[in-house]
């Protein structure tokens, strides 16, 4: 979660001309007030974050502060509160019509729970942002999480709320943190079918990953008809990520982002808010994946064959790192659509079918054919 991820992403986007593309505006972020954070988080938890932020010698294990995943550091509250404000500013801009799309690559802190930190996440900016949309009058919000880890914090925040559909495609909890996100986890009483989980087998690569995205996300979002689409683009499903076990390429992540952009235009008038998330191959993978996301949101998509700009490569190599030469991995990002037929003996198809069986009937969809 090193801030270097954000610096390298911003530098790459700037070198590619994305931050100066027509219609693009780059804004700063204030420190979110407690009144905003506590629309999702327990005030006692926010007070605990403030205490350890002011004195990093303290720990508070009851609130998940001071663990290996969430070590205490000076300014923890202010830094995390800025991430919240940035995502809320994004949803405000999109809901008001000031912007068609908005992206906060520093956001996507999807593991944070109302009363504790978890999985490198202190405040759940996504949950606060979705709550803001509901407060401002959104009738339905769809949240799609492409991070390799289950989006458990966002799911928990809206477990009982039928106005919010949370869709998470992640490596199975049998092999990866947080060990949750099973197909049968479908939402609380009165909100059945609002939580959607695809638990992918370890080793899933482009063809299976994109097949799952299109077989689950697209029909459900179309059926749900949200007013706004909110997406999380953790880059850690990539084959080179050191903390997970999927084998997805930059090309496939680019294709998924493009398909979600198109889905937002098809279903909810283009109202799309995107965030970053996980991703721990900090130099080779994360900046490229998120630069593609920014280009897609700016309606200035970066062609797959584009070379990495020399200025960015020079900066990276000057720090002693190897720099990628191309903006993608050169993969085909091909998949066989679900409509072409499913194989119940295939582990990927079994995972997808388990989710479709658990959730599709709640939305009037046929698990096999829709």
TrEMBL record:
GO terms for biological process: acetoin catabolic process; epigenetic regulation of gene expression. Residues 3-294 form the Histone deacetylase domain. SUPFAM superfamilies: Arginase/deacetylase. Pathway: Ketone degradation; acetoin degradation. InterPro entries: AcuC, HDACs, His_deacetylse_dom, His_deacetylse_dom_sf, Ureohydrolase_dom_sf. One of its GO terms (molecular function) is histone deacetylase activity. Gene3D superfamilies: Histone deacetylase domain. PANTHER family: HISTONE DEACETYLASE HDAC1 (PTHR10625:SF10), HISTONE DEACETYLASE HDAC1-RELATED (PTHR10625). Belongs to the histone deacetylase family. This is Acetoin utilization protein AcuC. It comes from Quadrisphaera setariae.
């Amino acid at each position: 979660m090193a801030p270097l991820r954000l610096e390298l992403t911003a530098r790459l986007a700037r070198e590619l001309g994305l931050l100066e593309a027509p219609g693009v505006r780059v804004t700063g972020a204030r420190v979110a007030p407690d009144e905003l954070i506590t629309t999702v988080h327990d005030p006692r938890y926010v007070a605990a974050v403030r205490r350890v932020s002011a004195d990093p010698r303290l720990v508070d294990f009851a609130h998940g502060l001071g663990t290996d995943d969430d070590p205490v550091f000076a300014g923890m509250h202010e830094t995390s509160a800025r991430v919240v404000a940035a995502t809320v500013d994004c949803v405000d801009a999109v809901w008001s019509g000031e912007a068609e799309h908005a992206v906060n690559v520093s956001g996507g802190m999807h593991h944070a729970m109302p009363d504790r930190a978890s999985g490198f996440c202190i405040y759940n900016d996504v949950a606060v942002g979705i709550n803001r949309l509901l407060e401002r009058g959104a009738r339905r919000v769809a949240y799609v999480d492409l991070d390799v880890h289950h989006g458990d914090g966002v799911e928990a925040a809206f477990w009982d709320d039928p106005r919010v559909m949370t869709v998470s495609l992640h490596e199975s909890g049998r092999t990866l943190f947080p060990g949750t996100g099973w197909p049968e986890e479908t939402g609380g009483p009165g909100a059945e079918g609002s939580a959607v989980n695809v638990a992918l087998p370890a080793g899933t690569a482009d063809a299976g990953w994109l097949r799952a995205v299109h077989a689950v996300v697209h029909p459900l979002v179309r059926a749900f008809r949200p007013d706004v689409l909110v997406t999380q683009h953790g880059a850690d499903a990539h084959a080179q990520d050191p903390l997970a076990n999927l084998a997805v390429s930059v090309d496939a992540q680019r294709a998924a982002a493009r398909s979600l952009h198109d889905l937002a235009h098809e279903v909810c008038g283009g109202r799309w808010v995107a965030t970053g998330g996980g991703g721990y191959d900090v130099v080779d993978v994360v900046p490229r994946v998120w630069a593609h996301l920014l280009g897609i949101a700016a309606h200035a998509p970066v062609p797959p064959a584009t070379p990495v700009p020399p200025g960015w490569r020079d900066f990276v190599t000057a720090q002693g790192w190897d720099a990628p030469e191309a903006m993608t991995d050169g993969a085909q990002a091909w998949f066989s659509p679900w409509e072409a037929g499913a194989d119940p003996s295939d582990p990927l198809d079994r995972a997808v079918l388990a989710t479709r069986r658990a959730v599709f009937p709640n939305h009037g969809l046929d698990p096999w054919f829709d």
